Amino acid sequence: MSAEPKLVELLYFDGCPGIERVSPMVAPLAEAASARVVQRRIETHQEAEAERFLGSPTVRVDGVDVEPGAEQRSDYGLKCRLYQTAAGLIGVPQEEWVREALQHATSSRHGAKQ
Question: What is the CATH number of domain 7-113?
Fold first, then answer.
């Protein structure tokens, strides 16, 4: 009996250049973790609120935003997203955050099986 693969979601809105920058970074990390990647377009402010969309691009692993502390934010909307890092603001999440989120999802699943 095999477990479902992890799901990596790339949420974006049309016209945001960030999705084109984040996809090539996320794809090999997801592949190495045997995760499935889907891109989801957010089209309306109501959808942004319902999806807890903090801006484009948003990267989630199994429904959890990869940015540390993102669950405490509520500034949802159709906007370009900026990520706060030690080096300053950037337009895509740090690769390390994605890697850690994939590792956490793997360890959480193994813990649930025991």
Answer: 3.40.30
